[in-house]
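so my prof wants the structure for this chain in the tokens format not the other one, which i didnt know existed until like an hour ago. anyway here's the sequence
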Amino acid sequence: MPEPHRIDIHHHVAPPSFKEALERTGFTYPPFRNWSIEQSLADMDEGEVATAIISLPHPVGVWEGDAAAQRRLARDWNEFSTRLAQDHQGRFGVFATLPILDIDGSLREIEYALDTLNADGIGLMTNIGDRWLGDPHYDPIFAELNRRKAVAYTHPIAPACCNNILPGVNDSVIEFATDTTRAIARLLFSGAAARYGDIQFIFSHAGGTMPFLFERLETAPVIDRRLADKVPAGVRGYLTRFHYDIAQAAHPAALAALARVVAVAQILFGTDFPFRTAADHARLLAEYGFDASDRRAIESDNARRLLPRWRAA
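here's what i got, hopefully its the right format
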């Protein structure tokens, strides 16, 4: 077996209380219901992944209820993920979960996750209750992450407005990529990307539909001058600062589009395990035609530069 070297920035786990919470919301994807640590490690080994940064995407419904319950869930999930990292030294990092509807609870969890658990960053959804990243709801959280120059990994979710909009088609097929672009647009045109310029944002799935809508995003402030003040560095200036993983977007069309928008230095290896495999993504990335230096940057060097704990790994 070759020496593992890749860093998977987009790898999901499912603590027991997470599975229970999903069952209560009716979100019962078998990959989450059947997840085990043995499955994660086997996939990592087969795909030559040295380290996976684990995160927990979840439907908004998980956070409905009282603040105390939200805080307990987030704490349990973050401590579970941290124990995995401690039990398997070097194999796992953590993007911590926040009780995102509870701002005070989220600020406390940021402090605990980053200062006590030594998480690698904070995981956010693209929207919560149809309030996309950049909405004033997030300002206290963003101010704290900006002060810390923290990494904010983002994962899409279907917004309430568009749940089950196409009968028989799972929301993840279309709405997830679309919602990533909504979040990016909200960050840009609310002025949040400019105000919180020290947050290191990571967007999943090659930025969703952003590369294909790049021209529309860039010309929006030209068409509507009211938007121009929100993006003083220009739309391109912010989009090229963000980072993007290649989870479920390692095929030639997505890679070609993303690589024309941003430098290779902003692209990160990701797999979306347990929905896809590390081996699939490694094979597709190799087949695309990046030279050895660029492929090494995407597979590991860019993540090591972004995440201080893994720089010497």
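also thought this was worth mentioning. The two ends are 19 Å apart (CA to CA).
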